[in-house]
Amino acid sequence: MHRLTPPSDGAAAGPAPTARAATDVIEISHLSKRYRDVRAVDDVTLHVQAGQIYALLGLNGAGKTTLIRLLLGMIAPTAGTVRVLGSDVTAGDRTAWAKVGYLVETATAYPELTVRENLEVVRRLPGTATSTGNSVVDYIIERLALTPYAERRARALSLGNLQRLALAKALIHAPGLLILDEPVNGLDPAGVAEIRALLAETAHQHGTTVLLSSHLLAEVARLATRIGILHHGRLIVEHDAGQLDRHRRRHLRLSTRDDYAAQAVLRAHGYHPTPATPAGLLLTEERALSRPDQVATVLVHGGAPPTQLHLEEEDLESYFLRTIGQPRQAGLAGRPAEGEEHHA
Ligand SMILES: Nc1ncnc2c1ncn2[C@@H]1O[C@H](COP(=O)(O)OP(=O)(O)OP(=O)(O)O)[C@@H](O)[C@H]1O
Description:
Layout (H helix, E strand, L loop, with lengths): L23 E12 L2 E12 L3 E5 L6 H8 L7 E6 L2 E2 L6 H5 E4 L11 H9 L11 H9 L15 H13 L5 E5 L7 H18 L2 E6 L2 H5 L4 E6 L2 E7 L3 H4 L2 E7 L2 H10 L5 E2 L5 E3 L2 H5 L1 H10 L4 E8 L2 H8 L17 E2 L2
Parallel strand pairs: 3-8, 3-9, 6-7, 7-8
Antiparallel strand pairs: 1-2, 1-4, 4-5, 9-10, 10-15, 11-13, 11-14, 12-13
Helix pairs in contact: 3-4
Organism: Nonomuraea rosea
Keywords: ATP-binding, Nucleotide-binding, Transport
GO molecular function, one term: ATP binding
């Protein structure tokens, strides 16, 4: 099994994951960033605990990159505070950069240097954890599936491999905290799966805390332990990823030969059917969702047997769009999901 830190020479020593207490690694308090009349980040308060994989989700322009640049002190906030790994982040102060593995926006590399040379430059950066010998470079090249491209100049890399190189640079010092803006940008589905597995392994086996941004809900839902949705600069919803299924709406869709009669039968038995589009009926109550067989029995005995009966679940994209107030399917919009933390 691979280890992120090469076992042989003790190079790239990062903070021991077991030594960290379950505490906030990132503390963002009432953070805002305005560009003239644009509120890129608007009064965001957010905490990321050690060992969490926190996914910031949002459409293009939601404020993800701005929030990440604020986190790293690359730009100054209009208001609010940021603490990373227990230290206040001040714009222009690069201390946070040295302690964090990061990838911000487009992957960049020295175009005339090879993959290996680019990584060697990062390995030798002053102010980062000491890494001696080439083994850490070899190791990270292999880990990011870059071996066939190791001697290729960065300018000749595909977008996906450039993104891999950027991730290799973020991971090379085995940081205790990774901050990644759209880490799977430009990767094909196999590459996305590879990076997902790599990040999950890094977090689970090495205790690395990860904050990543994405506009791909389905992708991050399989990786993140906590999800925050940004919309127009505001953090509008936060919840644990494990709760996602509970937040997704379900309904039982019925087709009948006579919707009017079926509706009357169901009402007489205490159900609350609503008309579906273009025809049929929907039931959303738990009693119907958990026992569709009983619904069928009631309809058969009432003389309005169903011709079809489907349990349908809102997909992740619809959930996301509904949460930001842009429902894709009118039939699934409206009711707030139970247990969500809504940020006004
Ligand atoms: N330097 C800047 N000057 C003016 N407006 C800016 C600047 N940077 C960001 N913005 C604006 O702030 C808002 C948030 O942008 P940001 O890049 O943070 O969003 P994002 O969620 O990262 O989007 P994307 O997924 O497209 O990268 C947008 O309206 C953007 O146009």
